[in-house]
# Entry
Amino acid sequence: MSLPLARSLRAPPVPGTPIWAIAALALIGLVLSPLVSLALAALQGSGELWPHLLAYVLPQAVAQTAGLLAGVGLVVVLVGTGTAWLVAAFDFPGRRLLEIGLLLPLAVPTYIVAFAYLDLLHPLGPVQSLLRAGLGLTNPRELSLPDLRSLPGCILLLGFVLYPYVYLPTRALFLMQAGNLLEAARTLGRGPAATFLRVALPLARPAVALGASLALMEALNDIGAAEFLGVRTLTVQVYATWVNRSDLAGAAQIALVMLVVVIGLVAAERWARRGRGFAGSAQRPRGLARMPLTGMRGLAALALGLAPIALGFLIPAAYLAHSAAGRIARAGLPERLPAEILSTVLYAGSATLIAGAIGFLVAASPRLLSRRLGPGFIQLASLGYALPGTILAIGLLGPLALADSALAAATSAVFGAAPALIGLGTGGALVTAYLVRFLAVAVGTCEAGLARVPGTLPDAARMLGRGPVATLARVQLPLTWPAIVSGALLVFVDCVKELPATLLLRPLNVETLATHLYGEAVRGTYEDGAVAALLIVLVGLIPVAVLLRLGRRGPRVP
# Structure
C-alpha cells in the first residue's frame, strides 16, 4: 500500500469538544482545589500560633518524621531489594512460594500490624507471659522486652509492612535484565556479591527509587501506627491540632510543612532515577539464569525469605484470627459490626464506582480530548495520589463548603428552600476525598488496558463513521473491562484501608471498620477490635490476588 493511500485511510485526529474540555477542567479543578484551599486556610491564621509551633511542636515533629522516613527508607530498600534479588537470582526449594508470599504484607495496613503487635508484645501479653513461664518467673517486672512504643519500633514495623513497594518493581527489573550482562561480569572474575553490587543494583536503581518513594509516602500518610507507637509525626500533629485543639488554620500550616516533605520525596525519587537506563539488542534478551542453592544454603535462603513474610503478615494475621475467634466464642460478634460493614461498603463502594467511570474517561482523554493535551491531563488528574489523607482532608474543607453554599443559594432562588448539606459533615465529603486520592489507581489500570487494544480496531470504527464516544463505548470499553474491574478492586481496597481522611471527614456518629479499630486501639481494648481488623486484612488480600493473577499473565522467566 502506498504511503499517500495509507494516510488517507488513517482515522482523523480527535478534536477536543467543548463538553469534554469543560469536564476536564472541572476534574482538574477538583484535584487542585485542596492545595489552593490549604494555602488559603493557612493564611487565615493569626500567626500567634507559630511561636508555639516553632518552640514546642515542629522541632519534635520534624525530627521524628525525618527519623522515621530515613529509617523506613533504609529498611524497605534493604529488605525489598534483598528479597527481590534472592528470588530472581537463586533457585532453591520453596522459591516459588516465596515469590507469592513476599507480596502478602501488602494486604495488612500499617495500623493493623501495630494494633496486633502492641497486644502481642504487651507486658501481660502472650509473648512475654510465655517467656516468663518458661523461665519460672511470675512478676512482669522481672522480665520485660524493649518497648515497642518507640521510634525504632515504629521504623521496624512500618519497614516490614511496606517493603513490597520496593520488592515488586525491583524483582521485575531484575528479571528483565539481560542475563549476558551478569554472565559477562562473572566471566571477568566478579563473584556473586560483586556482580550484584556493581552491575545488577545500579541497573535496578530506578525501580528501587520508585518503590522507596511510594513506601515513604505511605509512611508519611500513616496516622494510626505512629500514634499507637508514640511517634509524634507531622501527620499526627495535624490531626491533634485540628481535632484536639480545634485549630484549623494551625493544622493547615503544619500540613503545608508536610506538603514540602512530599514534594521533597518526589524530587528525590526523580533525582535518584536521573539519567538511568540501558538499551538492549533488538533480539529478545536471555533471562537471568538462577544459581542453584542446595542443602543448608538452600534452607538458609528460604529462612531469609520467610522472615519478612512472618513479621509483616503471618504473625499479625494469625494473632488477629486467634483473637477474633476468641472474641466471637466469648461474646459473639460486636453489635455495631453490621452497621460498620455497611458504612464501609457504602462509602468505599460509591467512591469505587465513580472512580472507575471517571478513571476510564481520563485514561481515554487522548482519544476524547486531544492527543497532545491528554497525557498532561492524565498526570494532573493523578496528582491526588501524592497527597497524604490528612492534607487532602483539610484541603477539601474549603471547596466543599463553597459547593454547599452555591447549591443552597441556587436552590433557594429556584425553589425557595435550601437543601441539607451534601458535602461537609456528610458522606459526600468522604467519597470526594476517596475519589481525589485514589483516582490515579483507576486511571493507571485503565490506561494499561487501553494500551493493549490494537490501534487498528478504533481506527476501523472511526473510518466506518463512528465518533470518538461511540468508538470508545462500542469497541474499546468491551475490550478494557478486565482492567477496569481490576482497578476498581484496588480502589475499593484502598478506600477500605484509608484511615486519616476517614477519621477527619466521616459523618458524625458513623463508624467504618478502620475508625472502629482505631477507637478500640486508642482505648486499649484490643480484643474488641480484632474482628474488624481481621475483616480489613481479608479485604486487603484482594489486591494481592489481582497482582498474582496479572503476574501469571506476564512473560514467564525460567
Observations:
- DSSP finds 25 helices and two strands in the chain.
